[in-house]
Every structure is written in C-alpha cells, then in structure tokens.
Amino acid sequence: MGIMPVWKDEGSKLRLQQLSKPTQPRGNIHQYMKLLQEEINQKVIIQVNPHHIKLYSPTFCIPKRDGSYRKILDARNLNTETKRIHFKMISSQDVQFAIQQNDFLTSLDIKSAFNHITVHPSLQPYLGFQVANASYVYIGMPFGLKLAPIVFSKTLQAALAAAKEGLTSTILQYADDILLINKDKQVLLVETVTVKQRLINLGWVINNVKSEMIPKQEIRYLGWIWDTKLMTARMPLNRQQKLFFRLSQMIQQTINRQFVRIKEVAKLIGKLQFLKFQFQLASFHLIKLNRIKDRAARLRGWDSTLQLKLTILPELFWWHSMILANKPLELLMKSTVTATLTTDASKTGWGAVLNMNQQEILASATWKKPLSLRSSNQREARAILYALRRFKKQLM
Highest taxon of the source (predicted)? Predict the structure, then answer.
C-alpha cells in the first residue's frame, strides 16, 4: 500500500501544481550522481514521463557524520500542504530508566531506513525531481518528507514486535536506531543475532558498520555515551570538541562586538539545548542568548544578522566551562524512580503525560493568552507549571 498523502484541505493539490518548477540538483554533483545511481539500482526512484509529475521539488546531497553522503528531497512545498500528525518517540530519559547497573548493550542500525517504505501511487506524482533532462519520482519514501518519521517508526515498531517475540531482552527504538539491553551477555549476543536475522527475513537491511553486535557496557546511542558500569551518560568527544570550538568563536565575536547570522545563533542554541539531559541547568543559561535572538528575528527577519551583546558573555563562559569539563550525568537507578512527567508546548497549547504506578495519565489545554508567551522557553516553563498543578493530587 505505502505512504499516502494526508492533504491539508481540498485545494492542496491544485496549489502544489501551481508551484511546480523543475530545478537541477545542487551540492556535490559527483556524490549526488553516485547516490542517484544507487537509488535507481535499488528501485527507490524510477524515471517517468514529465507529464506524469504534478510537483517538482529540488534535490541535493549533504555529508553525514561518517563521511558518506545522503540525498535529500527539498519537500517544503509538499510539507506545507500536508497535515501535521503528532507522535511521541523515545527520549534519553526513556533509555535512562530502561538500563540498570552492569547491563550489557548492543545496537542495530537500519540501512537506507526511509527507503524501505513504499510510496502509494497517489503520492508519487508529487515526489518528482529533475536531473539534466530526465524526470524521476520516488517510489520509496525519501528523506525530507514531513510524514516520513512517523510512518517509518510505526512500520519498524510492527516489525520489531514480531522480531522480539519470545525474547527476554529489552528493546528500544528511535527512528532507525535499535538498542537491546540484557543482564546476561551471552543471552544478549544470541538475541541480537536473532533480532537481526528476523528483521532481514522481513525485508529490512541492517547497516553492519554502524551496528554494535558484540555486547558491551559502554555504547553510543541517541547522541550519548552510555556507561552501565559507572551508570553515567556523557556527550561524545567529537561533539564536545565541535561545541567547544564554536563557543570559543562566539565568545571572541561577542568581545569584538561582531555581527553574526541569526540562524547561526539559533543553530548553536539548539545544539546547547540538546545538552540539557546532561546539564540540568542548561535552559537557565540560554535565557539572554534566546532573548536577543528572538528579538532580532522578530524585528529584522531570520535571514538577517544581529550584534552580539556583552551581556551574554556570562552564559557563553558557563557553557564553555561545562563543555570543557564534560562531567558525566549520574543516572538514577530504576528502583528510585516513582513517577515521570513529560511535557510539551506549542504556540497554541500544552500537553503532559504522567507515568506513575504503571499508569499513563494525559492532560492538555490551549493557552488562554497565547500572545503573552513569546518564546519557546516561556511556553515550556508554563507547560511544566500547569502540568504540576493538574497532577497535584497524584503527586502529593
């Protein structure tokens, strides 16, 4: 059947056809052509008559962390006309609560993950692109599609449910990354091979280079190094080095009162915000940086620049020292956790999930005065406050 379109309204298809314009690929053309040929060979794309295509989108390739490249479909126009579907993926906290001291860990990585999912014929004409004089459409789900993560995750979840039948290991999945946990090293070794073979039998392709098949007590997963002997989590060395260098640059730019692109500041804030799992006070040391970024974007637009103020130096120096030290987070033992509260916030409202006594309790509401909550930090903080008030009886 494959992934189907979920249009925003009845006029979505017509608006997309009016935006359709063939463009040539950009980026590293040599690497792009190699990836294009791979997609043809793997039947991820097919060449079609141009009249078959209702929406052309730009394509390009980007370098990955391991030095290889990934081909991307710039589907922003299609995504604009697609309904948003909310779903929850596992977080670092879920891994924290799943592992216990001296557990053994393995991981499996799905190769060309999204391309495993077929595209429904009704959506294929809207996934067109052009290279030279040839026109192609995706028949395997591409990177760049808004619905791709949820469709892929739900499909892999179903496959994993079948693959782990009769096994004792705990299995967690985030997108194409699978983590297996077991107290017994030999049992985990056997069950990792079993899960891998069952997934292969179901048609999935395993990336052996990125997978960790040998059970160990220190492993990289979800961007963290997990150590079950010491029960700690810390950022990997390469992330530490890159962030330390970028912060050193921004400190110098601030001292020199230089102008920097607003998007560069937002990018750094996002990377630092990710570290709040390791550094519990992270959000409090981004308040001033967030404030000048939001104000500049509101006044001049995201494509403009801003002048870094000296008032942000204390925040930058705090981050500089924390990343240099890279003090591991000490993980709570599973037996000490009695309840977990997860919150989320958007421009229109908030939601929360309380997991307690093996029960999941939900709460949500819309903001009464949404315009008074201008920044994401304000909305997130208000969501936590409202959630604690809503669950006061359960938590007392």
Answer: Eukaryota
Q: Which residues of the chain have pLDDT under 70?
A: 1, 332-337, 370-373
In this structure, the answer to whether residues 97 and 226 fall within a common structural domain is: yes
Co-location of 321 and 265 in the same domain? yes
Question: Is 2 within a domain?
Answer: no
Residue 102 is part of which domain span? 92-112+148-233
Position 117 scores a pLDDT of 86
What is the residue whose two structure tokens read 């008074």? Answer: 372
Report yes or no: 354 and 394 within 8 Å, Cβ to Cβ: yes
The half-sphere exposure of 249 on its side-chain side, counting CA atoms within 13 A, is 11
C-beta separation of 56 from 292 below 8 A? no
Helix H or strand E segment including 314: helix 313-325
Of residues 124, 143, 140, the one with CA closest to residue 71: 143
| One-character DSSP codes across 254-271 | HHTT-EEEHHHHHHHHHH
pLDDT in tens, 49-101: 999 999 999 999 988 877 888 899 999 999 999 988 877 788 999 999 999 99
Q: What does each C-alpha distance from 138 to 18, 144, 281 come to in angstroms?
A: 20, 12, 44
| β-strand partners of 184 | none
> Do 241 and 229 share a domain, yes or no?
no
Question: How far is residue 139's CA from residue 36's CA, in Å, rounded to a whole number?
Answer: 13
Rounded Cα distance between 222 and 213, Å, is: 17
Identify the residue whose tokens are 């989320």: 344
Q: Is residue 228 included in any domain, yes or no?
A: yes
Q: Which of 145, 121, 117, 119 is nearest to 57 (CA)?
A: 145
Q: Could you tell me if 67 and 106 lie in one domain?
A: no
Same domain, 83 and 96: no
Domains in the chain, number:
4
Q: Distance (Å, rounded) from C-alpha 258 to C-alpha 253?
A: 5
Task: Please compute Rg for the chain using Cα positions.
Answer: 23
